[in-house]
User: What shape does this take?
Amino acid sequence: MCAEIGRLAIFTRNSVWHCFAPPIYLRLILQQMLRIGYNSLPVVGLTAFFTGGVLALQIYIGGTRFNAESLVSSIVALGITRELGPVLAGLMVAGRVSAAIAAELGTMRVTEQIDALVTLSTNPFKYLVAPRIIAAVLCLPLLVAVADTIGIMGGWIVGVKSLDFNSSVYIKNTVDFLEFGDIFSGLVKSAVFGFIIALMGCYHGYNSGGGAQGVGKATTNAVVSASILILAANYALTSLLFTT
Assistant: This one.
């Protein structure tokens, strides 16, 4: 375990260093932003929409016990922006992107393409790892911003169409209750989650071996480790951002 932690720490240090050290491969970063960000919009949007809807429904059902139905819009907005938007978007992207990155880099490792890059005097961290990490850190806040909007809209649709809330009052309560800090904290979390997702995918793919079986193992480990670290980081960031 200590050896694995050490390898991960060294890999993280090298990855972060090459994210800032020149040269920066802008074309590769834009390609990864398209794959990580734009192609993840459907799954993140659908997840956020149904999460916002079911959250509004559950809060309404629970609120009727205490005559607190009017808090549905406020709690939906708070829950989506602070927690559910960043966490669910991170987990969805982890399942999609970490696996893809690990499989891609793992295949390159077992077919000796990474060794070929070294032979051609191209740093694998600079060419393979850094663009993916930069793209993930930039794209996850944008995805979470979209997820927040769609999730709140899902709660509004359920509240207005199914629970007979007044549309204008629901929107006004949402706008009045939300603060900039609620939205900003979710965006900060999402940037950290993006770093974790890309780092785990790159780490397990880069260090994979043993042919096709090794690539499959690296893919599984990337998704599992990214998901666990996202949940752990979410707790740590929540304690840091909201503890008075």
In short: The chain has nine helices and no strands.
